[in-house]
Amino acid sequence: MIQTVLGQIDAAKLGITMAHEHLSVNLGSVRGDTDSIFSYSKDLLQELKTLTDAGVHTVVEVSCNDMGRDVQALRKISQESDLQIVCSTGFYLEKYHPAWIKDASIEDIEEIFVKDLTVGIDGTNIKAGIIGEIAGEEKRITSSEEKVMRAAARAASKTGCAVTTHCQLGQMAPAQADLLLSEGMKPEKLILGHLDLANDLDYYHTVLAYGVTMGFDTCGKTAYLADEARIKNLIKLIEEGFSSQIVLSTDISRKSYMSVYGGLGYARVMNYIVPQLKEHGVSTDDIDNLLSRNLARILDMAKD
Fold it and tell me: Which keywords describe this protein according to UniProt (predicted)?
């Protein structure tokens, strides 16, 4: 079963899914802007209609404990948008961490994750369905970030949930994999995020050898990388047989990325990336892997 903000669903009902999104987030205190603050609104609902109109059924919402997560807002968004929403538990980059994390034990952090996954978040009965987006810096993983990752891996093993990460500019994925897998979590339950930004096939092959899933999840963020480069790399990896280890999304973390505010929007995967893949001969079966089949497997919290 897969946990959503409205309750559990059968994995077969997940449908087309965006793997890494923000629907209710507040990063403004660190970023020093208001562009990174948004939640339930008429504009957001209008924006999300572009997703449902494009055939999307589910969004994995990775705004975790220190990113302004608001599960009550997410429940309302789900009810009014007809999108299934999988919400998260976790802690992001160290500069976003609450002060107590520095002196907390791995066990202290793990306890929070397990409670959010099995009891409910912030005194509600709304449960997380994934741990993430836990994060590491571009060139290192800090001691606090390492504690969070170890706690995440242990909580994942205990509950059967998946873990999704933030690899800054796509870097440090092998180090994240080494750390998380050393705690006993299963590679098939791990998504390493923002790998599209690395733009390096040799690097991708190194990461894929771990048996993990790569997030090509910043589609439409053309200031970082042209979508044509993402598409070229996707086609090559799919030709090499890796469609079962890749998921897609847009990682909308600013209002200005939304189409209602002039950006390319949440539907960029469906309205541009997927048509381009089809035009280049990528099979329906491979596209189903990227959009639904992989995530149905990864998000299923059934334990062995």
Answer: Hydrolase, Metal-binding
225, 232 Cβ separation under 8 angstroms: no
Name the binding residues: 20, 22, 133, 166, 194, 251
Q: Where are the domains of the chain?
A: 2-299
Q: Which residue pairs, CB below 8 angstroms and at least 24 apart, start in 180-187?
A: 180/149, 180/152, 180/153, 181/153, 181/210, 182/153, 183/149, 183/150, 183/153, 183/154, 183/157, 184/153, 184/154, 184/157, 185/152, 185/153, 185/154, 185/156, 185/157, 186/157, 187/211, 187/212
Question: Closest Cα partner for 88 from 108, 111, 59, 55?
Answer: 59
Angle made by CA atoms 2, 15, 249, in degrees to the nearest 5: 90
* Among candidate residues 191, 193, 188, 116, the one with its CA nearest the CA of residue 159: 116
Is 189 a residue whose pLDDT tops 60?
yes
Q: Report the binding-site residues for a divalent metal cation.
A: 20, 22, 133, 166, 194, 251
Helix axes 143-159, 106-118, angle to 10 degrees: 40
**Interval 139-166 mean pLDDT:** 98
Percentage of the chain with pLDDT > 70?
99
User: How confident is the model over 85-132, as pLDDT tens digits?
Assistant: 999 999 999 999 999 999 999 999 999 999 999 999 999 999 999 999
How is residue 28 written in tokens?
């403004």
- Report pLDDT for 29: 86
What is the chain's mean pLDDT, rounded? 98
The dotted CATH code for 2-299 is: 3.20.20.140
